[in-house]
Amino acid sequence: MKRDSRNGIYEKLGKLINRETIAYVVAGVLTTAVNFISYEGLYRLGLTNLRANALAWIIAVSFAYIVNKRNVFLSRSASAKDEALKVIKFFGARLVTLGIEQLGMYIFIERLGFYRLLVKASMAVIVIVLNYAFSKLYIFNKNKE
């Protein structure tokens, strides 16, 4: 009986952990590094917390689009129009998660006084999960390509 339940667990893990999810984790780590390095550099240059975060977001999302399209979801565009639609969807979905991140940073840093890098890291986890869901189901959906 235990052997069957273990096989079921391994089977479920095998479906969850595959080339795409591993590539997404690597891309997510790299994108998060780009975001954090950009944010910290812009913050040290004198930008406010939220402005530094917004500009770091633009840099990181531009990087993420290329990496996700080419290396994670192996997406191809049939035409320039198809590519433009994917870019718009990608940035639109990322705008939603930016809003969530900005709100979280505002509440926890500006209002409640939490340590900014701890909040930034915590929000990054939430954003990564949401971004994967948007990318997988809405932007680079192979069934719609």
From TrEMBL:
- Subcellular compartments: Membrane
Q: Which GO terms describe its biological process?
A: polysaccharide biosynthetic process
- InterPro entries registered for this protein in UniProt: GtrA_CellWall_Glycosyl (IPR051401), GtrA_DPMS_TM (IPR007267)
Q: What membrane topology is given?
A: Multi-pass membrane protein
Transmembrane segments annotated in the record for this chain: 21-38, 50-67, 87-108, 114-134
Domain (GtrA/DPMS transmembrane) ranges? 24-140
Q: What keywords sit in the KW lines?
A: Membrane, Transmembrane, Transmembrane helix
Is the keyword Membrane assigned to this protein? Answer: yes
User: Per its record, how is this protein called by name?
Assistant: GtrA family protein
Question: What organism is the protein native to?
Answer: Variimorphobacter saccharofermentans
The organism that produces this protein has a lineage beginning with:
Bacteria, Bacillati, Bacillota, Clostridia, Lachnospirales
